[in-house]
Structures are given as C-alpha cells and as structure tokens.
Records
---
Amino acid sequence: MSEVQYMAAKTVKEAVKMMQAAKGKGWILAGGTDLLVQMKSGLRSPGVIIDVKHIPEMTTVVEKKGSFTIGAATPAAVLGENKKLKKAWPGVIEAANLIGSTQVQGRASMGGNLCNASPAADSVPALVAAGCIVNVQGPKGKRSVPIEKFNSGPGKTTLKNGEIVVSLTLPARPKSSSDAYRRLIPRTEMDIAVVGMGVSLTMKGDTVADARVGLGAVAPTVLRVARAEKALIGSKLDDKALEAAAAACSAACKPIDDKRGTIKYRTKIAGVLLKRVALIARDRVKGIEHHMHDSWA
Amino acid sequence: MSNAKYKWIGTRPDRPDGADKVTGRARFGADFNLPGQLVGKVLRSPHAHAEIRSIDTSKAEALPGVKAVVTAKDFPEQANLIVPTGEMQVNLRDVTRNIMAREKALYEGHPVAAVAAVSEAVARQALALIKVDYKVLPHVIDVLDAMKPNAPVLHDGMMTEGANPPATKASNIAKRIEFKKGDAAAGFAQADVVIERDFSTQAVHQGYIEPHAALASASEDGQVQVWSTTQGHFQVRGFCARLLNIETSQIRVTPTEIGGGFGGKTVVYLEPLAIRLSQKAGKPVKMTMTREEVFRASGPAPGGNVYVKIGATKDGRIVAGECIVKMQAGAFPGSPVGPACMCSFACYDIDNLYIEGFDVVSNRPKVAAYRAPGAPISAWAVESAIDMLAQRLNMDPIDLRLKNAARKGTKTAYGVTFNTIGMVETLEAAKNSPHYKTPVKPGYARGVAAGFWFNVGADSSAAAHVGEDGSVTVISGNPDIGGSRASLALMAAEELGVDYDKVRPVIADTASIGFNFVTGGSRVTFATGLAVVNSVRDLIRELKVRAAKIWKVDPEAVIWENGMAKPAGSNVGDFKPLSIAELAAQAGRTGGPINGHAQLNVTGAGPGFGVHIVDLKVDRDTGCVSIGRYTAAQDVGTAIHPSYVEGQLQGGAVQGIGWALNEEYIYNKRGRLDNPGFLDYRMPVASDLPMIETILVEVPNPTHPYGVRGVGEVPIVPPTAAIGNAIARNTGVRLVDLPMSPPKISEALDAAAPRMAAE
Amino acid sequence: MAKIHVNTTINGSPTEFLCDANQTLLDVLRDTLGLTGSKEGCGSGDCGACSVTVNGRLCCSCLILAPEAEGQKIETIEGMADGDKLHPLQKKFVEMAALQCGICTPGFLVASRALLAKNPNPTETEVRYWLAGNLCRCTGYDKIISAVLDVAAEMREGAK
C-alpha cells in the first residue's frame, strides 16, 4: 500500500525540518515534472513529499545590483517572462525554456532540473557557463557551492541529509557580456539533449575578454571545459580559436552509447555546438539575435 | 472545393460528433465506468524468451481486495485455425497464447497472469505476489539473426511453409511465399542498367494517443457486455466468443469512441482477460494499458530487410524487377509479408517480376496491422531503387515513373488486372503541382516517391429508420476513427435528397446492427458507405410504396426526387408531392414503421496510388533534417468530405515522415525494449513539420455509386523513400537503413567524406 | 493512511475532494470528479492529452499531485464552452476538421487557448513550438495549426 505522505512547507526552515524528520525518505517537490514520472515508473519511492512551492523565497526572483537570485522552485515559464533576467542572461533563460514542453515549463524549475542530476539537464550547462552559485540550506545552516561542483554523478547531488537547494545566484555581469545555449536533439522539441552547450562571453571590442563553457549530456555530470575557455579567451573567435575550443570540448567528453546517441556522435557534436554557440553569444553582445527556431544552416 | 455533380457530396459540413469531441463530452475507452467495477491489471514477462515452468497465484488470490486471478488455464486451448482480422490473418492457437502465455513467454511484456481487485494499488500488490518460475532461454530479436541456422527457435515444430526445398527441421521461418510474372532472369539480361541494393527498416508503432482500454461485465446467466476502444467491435465479439467458448449472441460489444487505431486496434488484448476476470469475480472489470504496456505488448508494425533489383533499358523502360522481403512477425507467425510483396511493384507496368517473401518469428511482440501493412517496407526499398535509376539515367523521377506507370489493364505480380486506376493522373497532378513547379530553394533538395494500396471491401450492414417527425437515423456498425460519420451522413443525404442536418448517423453495438467487418482497410467510406446508400435506397423503395398506398396507385408510378415522393408523370394523377415527414405521419395507416436495411460483402474497392514530393535540407555537421515543403498527391475516387480526405493524406504522410526520420523500436542486449514511451519513441511533433499540401485527384471508382475509393492507407507508403531520395540528392549519400536519424545520417556523411572529397 | 482533503476551484466552481498523496490531478479529475475530458495518453508529460491550466498557466495534469491543487484555480476542457456556446477555438476545430479521432483535441484546445491568451498574434512557427508538447497522430497537425491561426486572426479582428 502506498503510504507516501504529502506536506507543504511555508518557510525554508520548515522544509528543512520536514526533510530531517523524514530520515532520508523525504523528497522535495518543486515542479514535479521529474519526480512524478519517476514515482510512476518506480524509480523513486518517496516516503514523504515536501512541497516547497508555497515558500516565497523559493519561487521569486530578486535582483540586486545586477546579480540575480532565482528561487529554486520558480517555474521556467515564469523565468521566461522576467524581462530583466532575460536581458542579462538570454542563454540561461533559453536553456530553462527548453526543459520539456510548454506544459512542462509551466511547472519545471531550474532547482529541480539541477537536483534531478541528469547528465543531460538543459539548464545546467547554461548555469555553469553563467558561473551560477547554488545556495543550500540545511540543519547545520546555509552554504553556497559553485554549480559545477554540485552534482557528483547521474542522479546524485552533494546535498547532505536534510539539505535543500533554496536558490541559484547569477553574478552581476560586466558590460559587453552575453550567453547562449543550444542543444542537439533528433526532433525540434521534446527530446532529452544528446549534447547541451552553454557559452558565456565577455567581449572587449572584437576580442574575448572572458569565457565560460558548460557542456552537458556527454559525461556523468555537466562539465565546465576550462581548456575550451582558454582557447577562446584573448581570441577574436576566429576559425583557429574556435577549432581549438571545439577540439577541447570533444576531448573533454566521456559520453556513453545509448538510445539517444553514440559516443562518436556526441563527441563530434560537442565540437560542432561549441563553434555555433560561441558565435551566437558573441553576436548577442553585438545586439544581433539568433532565434532558437531558426534552422541551423 | 465542392463537387459540381452533387448537392452534398464534396461539401465540408461540421461532423455530427463535433460538439462532443471538442468539449470533452465524447467518451473514449477509459471514460466508461460501471458501479462496483474492479480494476484489472496484467502481470507481464520480464524475459524475452523463457519457459514457464509454473505459476503460483495463491498469495495473490489470498490478498484482501483481490476478487479474481486468471492465467492460461482459464482459457480453453484453441485449434490451429486461421481467421481474418482487419487486413491480416491470425491463428487462434496463437491468439490465445498471445493474450495469455501458455508454455512459454515469447517476448518481454508477454502476459502471464491477470488480476482484478478493488483498486489499482491492490491490483499492483497482487501482481507482485504472483510467483512465476521461468527458465530463461536464449532469445533472438533481429530477423536476419532469427533466420540463421543456429538461432534460438521459438516454436518447436515450426517448419517453413512453402520452403523450397521443403524444410526438414524447425526454424523461425514460418512461411515462404513467391510471386512471379514473366521471366525475371531473361528480363534482367535485356537491361542496359541494373540497380540492386539491400535495405532495412525497424519496427515502428502505430502511435495512437489513446492506450487500449476495455470494460467487461459478465452476468450470472452467461451474458456478457463489453465496452472496448476498438476498430471492430464485431471482431472483438468474435474473438472473445472463441477464446472463451461463449456464443456470439451472448456477448454484446459496444464500441467506445476510439482515440486512434491505424490497424493496431483490430485485435484483442484486454477484452478476453477482462471478461474472464469479470466472470470469476461477479463484478465488472475495467482494464487499461499504460503507455509502456502499449509499446511493449500491443502489436507494432514489423521491420524487415528488403533486397531490390531493377533493370531498365537506357530509355527508362523498366524490364525486370526483383524483390526479396524478410519480415518480422514478432513472437507468432503472421507478418504482412504477403501485402509487402504484392505491393512492391504494383505502381508499375513491368513484364518480368520475381518477388519472394519470408515471415520470420523472433522474441518481440506479435505484429499487428499498421496502415497499409507491409507496403511501406517494400516501398522504402523499391521507390529508393527507382530513384537511383532516375539518377543513373539522368531522368526526372516523375517522368521515369510515368514511363512505367500501371494503367487500366496492367496485370500485377499477384495476378489481378487493374480496372480504372489513377496512377498516371496522380503522377501528372504531382508534376503539375505548385510545389513541383517551384524551383528548389538553395541548400535544399527534392525527393519524389510513389505508393500503392489495394483497399478492401468486405462485410457491412446498415439500416435507415424514419422517426415520427420525418427525421432520418442511419445506423451502421463501424467505429468512427477519422470522421466517417460525416461521410456516411453526406452520402445518405445525397441519396435521400434531404439536408445533411436531417440525417443522424449512429454507430450501433453488436446486438443492434448486423455484422460489420472492422474499420480498417480503407473500407468504411467505400463499403459501409455503400451499405448505407443501399439501406437508404431500400428506405426510399418503402417510402414510395407508402406514397403509392396513400395515392392508391401502383408503386412503380411513384418517383423519389429532392426528398419527396412524386407521381411519375401527370398521367398518374394530380398528387401533391409528399415529404418524409408527411409520409411518417401516416406510417401507422400505411403499413407501420418505415425502415430500410442493407447488408453486403463487397469487392471492387479500387486500389489507390499516391505520389509525394518533399523538399528538405540536411545539416551536414549534425545530420539533422529540416523539411521545407511537403506535398501529397493521391487518387481519392470521389472526395465525399474533402476535409477528412485531406486529413487522411496529411496524417498518413506525417506518420511516414516519423517512420523515415526517427521512429524505431530499440532493444537492448537482454531483449528488452529500451524506449517504451513517447520521450524516446520519437513521433513527429508540430514543430518538426511544415504544412502538408494535398492534391486530391478524383478518378471515380466505377464500382461505387458515388465513385468512392479507399484513401486512408496509401498516404503512409511513399514518405520514407521520398525523404530518403531527397536526402540522397541533398548530400550525395544514399541511406538504406531506416530510420534516418541524425546520428545515422552524420555517420553516413562522415563515412562518405573521403570518397566525396576525391570526386 | 488518511485521505487528504483538498479545496480548490475547477472551471470557476469551488470544488472539494478527498485524495491519496500520490494520486495525480488527472486521476482525480477523471476518477473522482467525473471530468473525463482530460485524457491519459502517456502519464509522463510527453503527450499533452491531459493539459489543463493552473492559475492560467498551461500544465500537464498528470504531472501534478492532487494535493497540489489546494487553493489553485484549475481550468479544464469542460470549462471552455460558455454554457452551450462553443469557444471560437472549439467551433473552428470542428469547421476546419482539425480533429479526426478527437482524443488529443481537448489537450490541443486548452493549450491553444493558453497560447492566444498570452500571445494574440503568434506566427505559424510560434504556434507549432507552443503546441510541440501536444501529440497528434491522426492529423499531421496541419489543420490544427491553421485553425489556431485563423481564430487568432478572428479574435484580433473582434477585439478591434
């Protein structure tokens, strides 16, 4: 008999207490778009479901001096309607708005996307490229961790017992910065990413002053590809630099063969996407927009 | 577009079930409930191939809330007897084993037991308490592997029927068939150009959005009621009667609205189980499949390997064709390898043909029909080869087909001589289409392919009743999958001479109308339409008799015109015309209720031909395909309700596009299905597609009063090759294996790169 | 385990029900409240046949637990017509044959209405991407997209 319990927390402290009391059988319910599917398939059997959507801190976006703190349970669709956030971080927003269908985006959150810890999560590469900081609260208090260190493997986070992710902070941006996210999927929508690429650039004229590269779906966790960043920084995004950065991304891949893609294909696409996404980010800095739905070539 | 010949036929009125379907009021299979009903669930084999040594259901039976448990021992053994089901045939001995495993589990998902309990939660618990002792056996999934001499054999004693030389030991090859015309070897000897290639396809699913559902209620006196989402409720009745040893008249099956079938709902899975559980429990039992169960354990369409060889003289005349089809049947024999062979060259007039087919079992779910069963698989190969020929001869692909097109008088490889058909007209319509006349956009390439399907007639019964106020009810027995109520009402209205809104079409259950073959085979508008027309003609005959009685004249002196009875001439008498309402008002005095009936088994359905054009481009780096423009042209006889005819072309084309690009059953090493869900079984979504342009070529079928030809199945036949041909022309690389998913295209392009760089 | 008592609003009417913690909103709509217009095509959020709006936001009801409905405003297909007057989208779908078997139709109608409420002037591409989460196997989407674009144009015209 399913004895699963449901409770709704009103504050983060309350949610933490509930998680602790659940003694390892608690599960946070944000959008539910991963959890419900897993419960149905039997992959996860929570003893206590703790709904955090009534906690204001976890469902609002706060901007302070150019830095954004995003409630972990804020639906992707709500983020997509936040004009300031979209202007500062178009790549993060387009990534969040690729999680599933329109219906899924009505509920799915970046916190949930992160904590589900799928290697192919759409928002995470963009958040890695953004230099996102994950804000955690638990029985022992608060802590923050860079997002690329947050997950430890497929389905595994570094959260300790009783801890929950409260919000995600995106740092204030220098001028002439922008980001972009693209993924390779077999159809035009509705697929899990075969490869996901997030690139954030700060330009100084035509030269790349700073770069961060987040690569998803090609390793047990989302990768930050430092060698690709190095290849881009100081360059004018010429063919040679892009080639080098692409090669670095391909080299960083540790993918698997599965029903969504082969090792060979993913490795190749990692390089292909780096080139395209870096240029989209650079063009955005210049004020040139490439719409997600425009076809590639 | 309306048809100048007719008042109603060719118009586009609202469908009679429209309001119910757009408000959520219409009730589909899972929307029916009975008080006190139990929930039924199925225990399924986790193994692809296993001997079932024993099943212990005692703990499940003892669980509080469990009201009945069934296994194979609750179903009688069946004789080795083949019966038709939709456009395929099944063996009852196999059907009883497919609905509930007996000696062996033959595919992952194969039912081994079922329970009925007071709730889903209790039912799931009960399943977990059933102990099955399996002896796991080596399994085989792929057709070519299953045909190897050392392959694990599924059915001891299966000797290939039609083997040449005759089979001496059991194998997985159930049947070998052959079709010949002329002398293929001699034909090839005459050819200037020979194209030959091996092609392959993977299993795909019909993809209906509504999972299977059934509700059964058995009474203590032996009667049974069933509500089923099915393409053929008479089929359900017939199967359940045999599988459970119940008289057909004791079973009453009501078809619910059906959320898609495409052939996959012409067989039974849940109904016999629900009935038996209901009999044992003494309560109604409702069963639904989850999406996973639909993929694992209903009947997908087969994949297959096809070898094609065509020979032509340098002017483009095809002088010989050869096709060898090796087709998956799933766990039991009965793939549509016959139709695949028969359709392979049917679009063309070729003097010399040799076609061979193999029906091969392997450890996957038993296949069921899917829109023109078998034809898309051979068409993928033949239409690709024809395109290769066009490229080799530097001929326009439509011109090449026109040069070889089947016409009236063409004899097919399977022995039928075509009557009036529309292949040439359809090719010409495609050639003159706005699409074909528009130059291909830079970066894109264009592919063309043709397709054929026989269409069937078979049994239909219909009735037409006049109400006290003169309104007319037209009753038939085919579930409405695609808007057929509207087409039937249009034909009835046309025949009667009354407004479309005055005719109410109703779909009756198995007790309330005579036998009807399934909704499938593209037969409903044709055959059931004909039955409806005939029942209306019978009604008109009776209405004229009534008028004659009122006027005291001979019935021959009465004519029927514009919905009224009229004297045949002024010499008959000066009588005011009588409407149906007026005749109905006097029904009691003139002989009682006014009804018409008809029943028929009809042939002459008239085959259909389609020609599709697609413009697409391939992203060289990723292998992703963008479809820029798509046109489907087809000879449709008379388009009774053009919107629904267009809809058949569009829907079938998109299923074919999915088949071409991304859909496939993916099995892992343990013989388990890796992608039993809509996430990884990738059907086209709205953003994948452009508008699908349609060209309805009306070549009326001479055997139907309104010229109707079946249209529903042909559209799925051309798309795979049309897309493969466009990809070949866009990239210079010919793909031969379906689906042409991005990783596959990317790999093919990479492999060809050194060769192409050298060229 | 005691059932959870939920108070919510469905199609404008205050509604109460009892449910288990792990029942979905779709389960409750169909099995407890008799609102069978929302359909289960997959149970995993991949087909959109169960689409509803929650506080105006388009969602899959199979991905919402029934207790989450507490205090929310839920709209289903059953609330789309105004008494016996069909919504323009409903009328247009019938007129343009934008349905064949009809199983996906409630989901498409709910999703399309949500689109037009947010964007009264969508391009064809925008309509297609918005509706990518609604699977149809019968129509090839063509007439559905045309119907939505036509209604969008008519509603803009009517609003003038």
---
Amino acid sequence: MARLVTILVALLAVPAGFAQQQQQDEQFKKAGVCARCHVISVVEWGMSRHSHVATDCLACHGKSEGHVIDERNNVKPERIPHGAAVAALCAGCHSEGCPKTKQKTGCETCHHVHALVNPNQPPAVRNEALEKRTVQWERYTRQMAAGEQAMKARQWQAARAALLSALKESPGDRRANELLRACERRISGRVPGFDNAGGAFDDATGLPREVRVSGIGIPMVLASGGDVDLGSDRFANARPVHTVSVKPFYLGKYEVTQAEWTALMGSNPSLPKGDRLPVNQISWEDAQAFIKKLNEKVPGAGFRLPTEAEWEFAARAGAVAGASLSDVACFDQTGAAAGPQPVGSRKPNQLGIYDLQGNVWEWTSSLAKPYPFDASDGRESPDAAGLRILRGGGYADSADLLDPAMRHAERPNRAFRWNGLRLARSVPD
Amino acid sequence: MENRVTRRNFLRSSGAGIVAAGLGASGAGARAAPAAEYRRGGMVYRRLGQTDLYVSLLSFGSHTDPADRRPGGPNRTVLSEEGQARRDRIILRAMDYGVNLLDVYETEGQWEPTARLLKGRRDKMLVSLAHEISARDIDNACRLFGHVDLYRFHTADIDSQALHNWDVLRKAREAGKIRAIGIATHIERTMTVALDELEGIDYLFFPYNFIHARADYSQFLPAAISRNVGLIAMKPLASGSIMKLDPRARAGMKPEFEDLQLWQRRNKPILPAAVAELTRSLDRMPDETLCMAAMRFVFSRPFLSTAITGMFHETLLEDNYKALTRYREMRPEEHAALSAASRLARLCGDAWLPPHYRWLEEEWRA
C-alpha cells in the first residue's frame, strides 16, 4: 500500500515539476539577454509580481548596451538606482504610494531593490546577519563610487577620505586599497629613488609616467599593468597561449647603454664600443652584478630585470598599430645589420619605450620553464639553477625572431655579443 | 587586473569560506616510449636522439662526384649539367629504396638543384644542411626548402665562435625553422666537450668505420648514449678509400677505378701476404664486396641512428642497399675479411687514404 502511495505522489509531482520548469523558462525568455549572467536576479524578479506586469530590467537599468557586450564587466549598466531613485521608479506605477502602508519613500526597506520580498509572503526565516551585511554593502558601494568619482575629478583628498570610509566597511578590500594607494601616491607626487621626468601622471596608479633614477639619470617608463595574453601557437616553447595579470612596474626607456654600464662597473665588455650603444656581450650573471651595484648606489630603489611576463606585457601593450617593424626595431632586414645601433635610433612604442624589439636581446629574470607562466613556481628565484630567458630579438636576427612571444633560453654564465639588458623595478607600495 | 568586488562575493565573505575541492592531478599513466626503430620495405628507420625524426639507416651523403665538379665562384663548385642529372637520378633512386635523409652542401652548389628536385617530394625526404651559421643563411635555406630538418656546423673546437654559432642555431630551432641541430667534428675530445657545452644538442656527426672505430673506446659515446643524443656516422667507407683495399673492386664502382687498379698493382708486391689473406677471406663470401661488409659493420652498430655516405654511382647505392637489407648479425667470414682489410690498411700506413683524409688514421684508428 505504502509503495502504491509513493508511486502516486511521484506521478503527481512530475507534472508539477514540469509546470514550474515551464514557468521559469518563461521568465528567462522575458528577461532576455540579462538572464545570461544575472540568473539569480531573474529568478528573484520572476518570484515578484513585477514579471507579470512586464516591468523588466530595462525599465530601471536602461538599455545598457555597453554593459551587455562587455564580457569582463568593466562597463556598468546605464542606471543603477539607489535610495530615492528607487522610490521614484516605484512611483511610476504606484503613484498613490505603497498599497499597504501608503509610504512614498524607502520602498527598498521592505521590498529590496528588485522587489524580492513580497510583504504578503514574508520570507520564512529572517537572516539578520545577511541584512546587516547588505546594508554594509550598500554603504561600501556608495563610498567606492564617491571615491572613484572624486579620482576622476582629480580631487585626491576627497577621494582618499571616501576610500578610507569604504575600507572601514570592507577592511582589506583589494580594489579600495589599490585606489587608496594611487591617491596617496598622487598626493605625495614622488617615488623613492626616482626624479620625476615628465610631470604626467597615470590616473589608475597615481604614479608619474616617466621618471629618472636619482643621481644616475637612467630614464624609466611606467607600464600600468593589467592582463596580457602570453605566448603564441607559432613557437613550440611558447604554447599554450594563456592570460597572466601583471602588476604595474617601471621599465627602462632604453636598453642599458655602454656609458651607463661603464660608469657603474668601471669596464665595458661590449663590441663594438660606443657610449650610446647598448651594452652587450654580458651574461645574466653580469647583469645581476650590475643591478646589485645599482641598488647599492640607489638605496631602496629595488632595481631588477623584468620578468618575461612583464617584458611581453610591455611589448604587446606598447605595440604600435599599423607601424612597420623596421620603424620601431633594429634587426637584420637585408642581411646588412653589422652591429647594434645607438639606443633610441628607432621610434618608441606606444608606452614610450625604445628598442624593445631588436637591437640586443634582453635578459629577463625568469628561468626557462614551460608555460603557463606562474611567477610563484620558483621560476623567478634568483638563486635557482637553470637557463634564463632572453626576449626581443637582436640586430643580427630576422623579423620572426623579434616576435613578442619568442623565448630564447641561455645559460646564465654565457655572454654573447647580441645580448644586453633593460632595467625594471616594481612599483613601490 | 580587475579587483572590483561583486555584491555576491561581498555577502559571501561574511559566511563560511568556500572550500575548494582540489582535484589531485592524477597521473594519466606513463606515456609509452616511442619506438627506437622500425622497418618499412627493406629500409630500417631509427629515431634521431630525442627528436621526433626517424631517419633511414642509410643516408645520402653531401659530396658530389669530383669528376663532374666545375668552379662555381669563390670557395664553391657546381656540377656539370650531366653530373647534376646523374646525381638527381641517384637521389630519386635512393628515395625509391626508402632513403629519407639527404645531406646537401651549398659549397658544392647543391641547395638550389636539390630544392628543385624535392619540389612535390619534400615530405618524403629530410634535408640535412651544413653551412655558414647566420640568420640570413638559415632564412635562405628555409626559403628554398620550406624548413630545414637537420642543420649543423663543422668545428674543430668548442670555442667562442662555436658557441655563437650554436646560439644562432638554437634560436632558429626555437623559431621552428630547424627541427634538429648538431655539429660535425673530426676530433674526439671536441665531441665530449660539445655534449656538455652545447645546450640541447640533438645529434653528432663523427667518423666511424671498421678501421676508424676509435669511438668504440671513447668517452663521448657512452655520454651521448646516456643523454640520448643522435649519432650519425660519416666516412663509413673512409671517403671511398676502403674500396681501394678491395683486390676485387669492380669496374665502374668509382670513376678513379683505373687508379685503384694501378694502386693495387703497385702495392701488391710489397704486401703479398696481407693481400692474399684478404683475397682468401673475400673468396669465402662471393656475393659480397669488402665495401658491403664495411657498410654492414656500421649498420650493425645499435647506437648509430644512420650512416651517411656519398654515392656517386647507382651500383654503389645498390650495394649499400643490399648490405642493409641483409641487416642481421655479422657473419664470421665477414669479420675475417674486415680484419684482413684492417691489417692491410695498417701495413700501408696512411698511404691508402687521400692526403686530405689522413687525419682519419691519426684521430680515429681503433
């Protein structure tokens, strides 16, 4: 008997399940493109009565075409109503105010912004911690928005205050911390170990775009960091293509010249000789010795070689669209390149960096390990044994070796006449 | 780089953290090791070191027939029209036999004629080049051949120039222009040094035949085998001079056949016992020449990927192919013939070798 009852219940449940599924499908159809990402919101909207009276996402958020096509969610919807703006939208239909309380403001106190909570059917269990956290979230987003707006308006002190408030709501928040650091850098206007060279600042990081090493004068350019697709299917050792996040860093505007090398090291191993020619015939170990001396001379500056991810970021982010390679790089186009050219002889890339491709190969700090690139897997350890990566191609190479994805591994004690270096340093905290 | 906090993450951060269930990277089982050798038709193919190339045990050498050479510019010769046609015909015949490695010298004017010959057949032949090492020369070779399968340079020592050349070759391999890179050297010590100093070396060319088999006792051989570096034997017939030791050398084997006969007649009186012993040994293997036995000796060495030899005449190609198709354990009478020939060569000093190949006796005599 019990078995029979079970079967009957199951048979009844199946059509009910179908009906629920059909209802949800209908909601998703109505929600249109928004349902692709905002699944939970659409389900919540379907639970409220708004879905029945055709009040859809567009009514409150606008068409938001930019938001719809932006997969990385950098573009916000056209409108994100808060507080009084929500009440104003509600008043579009409920002109008499709340049907129950007749209140015309503070609708979201009972109904939340998506009218999730139907006062006629209150949620079975009230989650007070969640409600408190929701309020906290709204305060956080308000402060963050105010901070970002102030940064756009270059009101650095106001932005700093707003971001500090946001951090109170969400301590340790990465984004808020980054923006706060950018504000503070912008307020102080100085980077330790550097003299500001150009006067222009990067809004995202608050750092000067171009600087010179104090007392030495080596110019460096800011690469503001971001995501970069490393690798290429063209080269066996550059597969697979993968995305890596690179933090902001400074990169030498030019390859280190023979004059700069000689001034610090007292001797010049390069061939041919020339003050403005890039230093060459140096090993990775020689480059490390140079950097060690430089760091002793400029305390706290933290000079180093770029990682190969940083190098490729600078090469890809700085690529000049439509420019021919020979405009920006010195390489063996006709078999006539007899040697390196003075640094800066060609045009700079979009970041303002010269000779990133061509002239001399540039040592990176990275060990020659297979991709994907992971800076935490020991490949950036200065003491680890193994081959180190060179990037960029040289004056004696043909164009395909100047590809930004081309990786060449060499023993750290080997010095060839087409290998040089370019300085890098992390952005100070 | 986008650190923006989403509402969902913000709310979630107040609750319990999400426990990510890490799936252990379970080993998908050890990869089956690729075969070291396989046979197709009569030809045997062996893997070249750690590369993905399989080369025929008999390879076609680079030297062109001196009788057909003409000056073709500074330090360069070319073949006469007739000589080129003969060489092309022998190469095509070798391809029919399954030979899939062809060594080509530009100093003997062979890059362009070979590229023309291989048009439409490039997938059936691996091209091995040895030339000056510069990006321009490599690009030029790629323009002619599409890509280069093997590229090497010849060096007496691993000095700074050799290291520079090696750097250029490695870059070309990393860029996908060359599939395997190596060196050729006539000096045993250089090979040992090369294994340590030349990063990522794929193969070594070295002299090896039954008389000049010092490699069997060398340091580099076990080192190369343990590092799985491909080994290619050159001079398996000591630049054709082993034929000179054969009292039964057939007419038409080499253009200088008349010279051979003359040399035999001149030397016979002073080496009667040794020549008689060799003749007796050869009589016991009537279907085989001394050169075939010499090639069979080289083919029987398991550590070699291939033996590369110049073939100026179709009969020589056929003999080499026959020696290969009989590929099995060497017979006692073959060993006896090779020992007799070795003794005869020793009695002759280095006079049986052309003057520019006498280094073989100094460096490689076992």
